[in-house]
Amino acid sequence: MTHSRNQAEERDINDLFDDIVLIEENCAAAGYQEGFSIGCKKGNEEGYRVGYEQGSSLGNELAEIYGKIVALQQVQHTEKVRRALNQLREAINKFPRENRRDADIIGSLENIRLLYKKLYKYILLIMTVANLRKRLDTVLGFLEPYWEWVNCHMVNFLTDNTWQTYVPAALQKEVLGVSQLAACIETIFWSEDVQKSSLEYPECHKFVKLTQQHSLHSFDDILLTLDKFREINNIETHNHLNVKEFMSFKKKHEVEMTVNLIHGLLKSESRDDVFIIDAGDGKGYLSSRLALEYGYKVLGIDSNQSNTESALKRNRKLQKAWLSLKQRAELEGLETASKKEKRKRRKGITPKTTSNYKTTSRFIANDLVLSHLLKEHFPDANCTSSICLTGLHTCGNLASTCLRVYHSQPECKFLCNIGCCYHLIKEMYSNRESFANMEIMNQQTEPGFPMSQYLQEKQIQLGRNARMLAAQSLERVLAAKEMPSPSLFYRALLEVAIREADLHFKENIQIGKIKNYHNFEEYATECLKKYPFLPIKTERVKYIQQKYQHSCRYLELFYMLRLCFSPVLETVILLDRLLYLHELNYTQSYLIPLFDPIISPRHYAIISIKK
Q1: Which of 9, 53, 398, 503 would suit a FRET pair with 274, their CA atoms being 20 to 30 Å apart?
Q2: What DSSP element (H or E) covers 525?
Q3: What architecture is the 226-428+582-609 domain classified under in CATH?
Q4: What order do you get walking across the sheet with 412-420 strand by strand?
Q5: Which residues are the signal sequence here (predicted)?
Q6: Coil, strand or helix at 56
Q7: Where are the domains of the chain?
């Protein structure tokens, strides 16, 4: 696996843009001197001031364009783009430097602006793509020494001596004794005293800080806040119903934030001309809310037939309670009903139950034609209808499939996708992996990682354990000060016994979840009930527990340090998806932190708008 950067791309575009400031200053200074001299000679001070202001503004505009051209010419482009860049650069070079009567300054300026306008979209795309590639290179470079660590099995913590094998020596030296392990966890992870952390455990502190710096939440140049996204796309905030019934607190938070975002995206669209397709509909939390609260026509798709039936059942209950929920919201101070609705209510007219929400059981693949599916359930859908493809926690490969479907089908004008279950992603360059649900995995026709051409050319692979780590929540663990479950250590102890027995089938033993135990002996007893053929005696279990009694503290710190890679690995997956969209020229594609990460760990939304 190679993560080295191409030598031809060492000179980064963003670094070249620093030269623009100097070019602008030189142009402004030259314009000032020329205007000042001419103005003084003519004795027309007012004319000089006006001329200087216009000349300075013009110089800045041309200098900015020229600087971007010079920067863009440092990297490879198609022949067509190279010609356009040369043409624009030549036009600026030929721009009149003196205000002669025979010089068509206005005409030359308009020509330059026209040429630049044609290139502007491409320039923005190149800048974004270059920045995403640079970020990915940086993150992958950071991960390079740690791939074996992030892909190790916690089950093998004792048998493979993973503490000594994977934890950097500098970190090991800071916690030489068992007594220091708990103190290190308390200081580095639970305490908010940064100064104490950096003084007592400088190497551990430095390591944790580095993982934070290579995580998505630190990339302000790529992440777009929800408020900024609304500002850019002229989306107004609005009140929404506070529906506490029929869902958990976590799901309520996710649904309300997502519904609000989607409605903002589609607010300018006619309800008759836009349809929403919810991929991985599940119990219909998102889709039924969009249909009931805002009147959108929504088709929920789920591969599980029982899920679609549950979604319809839940929607019927929600419809019956909807009127009272709206009335309660109004009493709480939220204006949710129009004047027309209120008049009908006073007259005792009950609104008809909506038929805007439909469901279907399908496996979403790249060749699924959404417009045909819509037509089956909404006969009024036509070829001019716009589709908004949504997905609230699309599992595994479904997220990447949604991005491909969005690209391949012109009717898909909007995309709002929040992915999850990274461990179920099918990788292009990873060796064959074992999955609990092979039936679903075998239906995946295309890999879900990497998606971008850039990472495909590098043949990047993550590994199943790395993806499982990416799906964990560092934020939740830190907020709850939550140590790993004792079962993690117990399973590592049991693995010692299994290895000692030298069983040829040890790789196929999947213990799974064990209930009703209070100590390792009880845990081992329950495991042996599942695998009675294991030749492990009670006396041996007691001996192993005694031998490794102090190793539990090492496992806890190992677990916490390894968990710091979780947001770093998620960053690679999400930046790859965003880069995929930008490589396909979808310049209005964004990555937004939509949810509270403690409430909902998979909280990043990928938004894309086709012009």
Answers
A1: 398
A2: helix 520-530
A3: 3-Layer(aba) Sandwich (3.40)
A4: 357-361, 297-302, 274-279, 386-395, 412-420, 604-609, 589-593
A5: none
A6: helix
A7: 7-143, 151-213+478-563, 226-428+582-609
Name which of 484, 363, 468, 466 is nearest 421 in CA terms.
468
Q: Which residue has the tokens 């306008």?
A: 117
Query: Which two tokens mark 293?
Result: 């609260």
Q: How far apart are CA 37 and CA 27, in angstroms?
A: 16
pTM of the model: 0.79
The pairing of strands 297-302 and 274-279 is: parallel
Token pair in block for residue 90: 């030549």
pLDDT in tens, 307-348: 666 666 666 766 665 566 666 655 555 554 444 444 544 444
Q: Which residues contact 172 (CB under 8 A, 6 or more apart)?
A: 163, 164
The residue written with tokens 């677990």 in the block is 559
351: number of CA atoms within 13 Å, CB side? 21
Neighbours of 90 (CB within 10 A): 11
State how far the alpha carbon of 169 is from the alpha carbons of 115, 172, 201, 203, 481, in Å: 57, 5, 13, 10, 26
- Please list the rounded mean pLDDT of every run of 10 residues in the chain (611 residues): 44 52 53 57 58 73 82 74 85 77 77 80 76 96 97 94 96 91 94 89 96 95 90 76 75 91 88 90 87 90 70 65 61 50 46 70 88 90 88 94 96 96 92 60 78 97 96 95 93 89 64 84 88 82 92 96 98 98 93 95 95 74
